[in-house]
Amino acid sequence: MTANILVVDDEQSIADLIEVYLKNENYDVFKFYNGRDALQCVENQNIDLAILDVMLPDVDGFSICQQIREKHKFPVIMLTAKEEEIDKITGLTLGADDYITKPFRPLELVARVKAQLRRFTKYNSAEPKQEEHLITFSGLVLDMDTHECTLNEKKLSLTPTEFSILWVLCSNRGRVVSSEELFQEVWGDKYFTNSNNTVMVHIRHLREKMHDSAEHPKYIKTVWGVGYKIEK
Amino acid sequence: MTANILVVDDEQSIADLIEVYLKNENYDVFKFYNGRDALQCVENQNIDLAILDVMLPDVDGFSICQQIREKHKFPVIMLTAKEEEIDKITGLTLGADDYITKPFRPLELVARVKAQLRRFTKYNSAEPKQEEHLITFSGLVLDMDTHECTLNEKKLSLTPTEFSILWVLCSNRGRVVSSEELFQEVWGDKYFTNSNNTVMVHIRHLREKMHDSAEHPKYIKTVWGVGYKIEK
DNA sequence: CAAATCCTTAAGATTATCTTAAGGCAATAT
DNA sequence: ATATTGCCTTAAGATAATCTTAAGGATTTG
Predict the structure, then answer these.
(1) Substitution target from A190, A192, A222 for chain B, most B beta carbons within 10 A
(2) pLDDT in tens, B145-187
(3) How far apart are CA A190 and CA A229, in angstroms?
(4) A73 and A44 in contact (C-beta within 8 Å)?
(5) What is the predicted ipTM?
């Protein structure tokens, strides 16, 4: 169920952030701010998956990926800044199993990691473990892989943000989740102000699509002064 | 269970206030009114968590945070005045694990401190200690994380203020808590006048929701001339 | 019995949330 | 390239929940 994950990014804040979200999912994280140390780690530790920034000060992600591939089989996910030209990226991410552009949403990163591990164990072990990419309960189905949502056999077409919010609420159901927490989980940003009512607006849209109401909620309940909640 | 906490704020009254509440929770407090002395302390003492005001006369909180991060791993919580622009804040609190805007409620501060320590020990020790965010006794359950309250399996929907008052009473049960003390704990405001009967009104609402009465109290007992009390 | 403290109630002030709509941005199609 | 579409964010007004205040009544104390 758990796995050793290598994280390499010279931007410490980003590496740290990734570490937090992965540890939150109970993965063991091996974090480095440069390529050299990371390569050493690969030899000594039993790594199951690597997340590499393509732009590193010493060795670039592409080289690391190549060197990993010479001896190891585990999946590699590349991180690329959005501004970097697509040509460069296609070159540098060659050989990677997936790549994610910065800034990314924590949920997305975690989902991709799980998907890769799922794919990998599927092809490499007799007893494939199943990571949770589905949430199902009382008529509601959420599929993280396809971002699809079904409510009582009817498909809801949710936007990415709406889906993420509902996902977080559902995976914490029975517990109240504050706007701030939702914001952090969905946007990956620590800084939330009360004047920011964007979470609220998306909740409103969600309720609309679920034929829910704020006054007599069937699904998303408002807990005054605390946050939102879906009953268990 | 206990921990060494560094507190830095140039507003002495605020630093003193924080000290009081933390000591009340049995933490050891190292308090400073400027950044220089605080940094020195970090080197000599075995600090477990820091609370830093972002706006300090000599070194700002951001710099302190950076300097701490170079050598230490403990969590850092930033304090920011509400008026300070969000841009400034995002810059200055970069690298912090959490931030709290002033004015804050003491309970909130304590809760955040506990949360950080919980998170930290979770990632850094084999035997994760559990800090108390739950109060349970004789049919009553209070959950600080979700602000939920259950009495004899029935859910009570308390307002934030009501919850806070009940929390303080419960965590001091067996002892009489004065209106003034309640006011300070819940509102974080030092100045309480006797003509202020707002605590009393909330007690009344609490009793109503708990099906309690002032004459024959099952839970919240009035101690004449002293305050309120919940039996042990 | 008088004085002090506490209880209850309700109205007004405050604060949090809801709703709606408009503008900006980004992805997609022409 | 440009146009179109859909999504996200922001802002402002409306609504609802909560908080505070104040006043009168009740209870306890001395």
Answers:
(1) A190
(2) 788 899 988 888 888 889 989 999 998 888 889 888 888 888 8
(3) 21
(4) no
(5) 0.64
Beta bridge mates, B4: B28
Query: What's the pLDDT at A156?
Result: 86
The verdict on domain B134-230 having CATH code 1.10.10.10 is yes
Q: How far is Cα A232 from Cα B16, in angstroms, rounded to an integer? A: 42
Asked if A97 and A83 count as a contact pair (C-beta separation under 8 A), the reply is no
Structure tokens given for B10: 């140039």
Average pLDDT over every residue of B33-62: 86
Q: Partners of A149 in the beta sheet?
A: A142, A156
| Domain ranges within chain A, ordered by starting residue | 4-124, 134-230
Q: Do you find a cis peptide bond into B217, omega within 30 degrees of 0?
A: no
Distance of alpha carbon B184 from alpha carbon A189, whole angstroms: 33
Give tens-digit pLDDT for B120-141.
765 555 444 445 678 888 889 9
* Per-residue model confidence (pLDDT) at position B118: 76
H or E, element range at A134: strand A134-137
Q: Is the C-beta of residue B30 closer than 7 Å to nucleic acid chain D? A: no
Homologous superfamily of domain range B4-124: Response regulator (3.40.50.2300)
DSSP-derived letter for residue B177 is B
CB contact under 8 A, A175 and B145: yes
> What is the C-alpha separation between B61 and A208, in angstroms, rounded?
43
**Tokens matching residue A114:** 């799980």
Which of A54, A53, A74 is closest to A3 using CA atoms?
A74
Q: Which residues pair with A143 in a beta bridge?
A: A134, A148
Answer whether any strand C atom is within 7 A of the Cβ of B147: no
Edge-to-edge strand ranges of the sheet holding A148-151 = A134-137, A140-143, A148-151, A154-156
| Residue % of chain A over a pLDDT of 70 | 84
Enumerate the β-bridge partners of residue A222: A228
